[in-house]
Design a protein that fits this description.
- The protein is mainly α.
- Helix content is 35%, strand content 0%.
- It has helices at 2-11, 27-30, 90-95, 103-127.
- The longest helix is centred in the C-terminal third of the chain and has 25 residues, at 103-127.
């Protein structure tokens, strides 16, 4: 008798308690007018011009210090402007002639090629 009661309880859907799920009303969606659908599009920024500032806000790491001032571009080192340049992938470097590569690209090729060989060796050892 007790087993039949447990089996019947398992088939009942939970409507409250731990297993209950929250259901949201769709009334908020129905209240929108046709003109409100256009507001879902991304809004244009109200700041159309570049914001000019004289300091780097939030770059101060000292307790009693102040934010550093922004210098003219000529005051910064040349390498700083190339930090975000795209670097060639291994497949692109393999297509080029190794003898004509610049030193930086050759160094990158060796590093990426070694990394690829190590990964390949690890996968073959893991399969065995």
């Amino acid at each position: 008798m007790a087993m039949n009661c447990i089996k019947s309880l398992r088939n009942l859907p939970l409507t409250s308690g731990i297993g209950a799920s929250r259901v949201f009303s769709s009334a908020a969606k129905s209240k929108k007018s046709k003109g409100a659908a256009s507001s879902d599009a991304p809004k244009q920024s109200t700041l159309s011009k570049e914001v000019k500032s004289t300091t780097v806000v939030g770059a101060n790491i000292l307790k009693d210090g102040t934010d550093p001032k922004i210098l003219p571009d000529s005051e910064y080192p040349e390498w700083l402007w190339h930090l975000l340049d795209k670097k060639p992938a291994l497949s692109e470097l393999r297509r080029k002639n190794i003898e004509t590569l610049p030193y930086e690209d050759l160094k990158r090729f060796v590093k990426l090629d070694n990394r690829a060989r190590i990964k390949e060796n690890n996968t073959t050892r893991a399969k065995n």
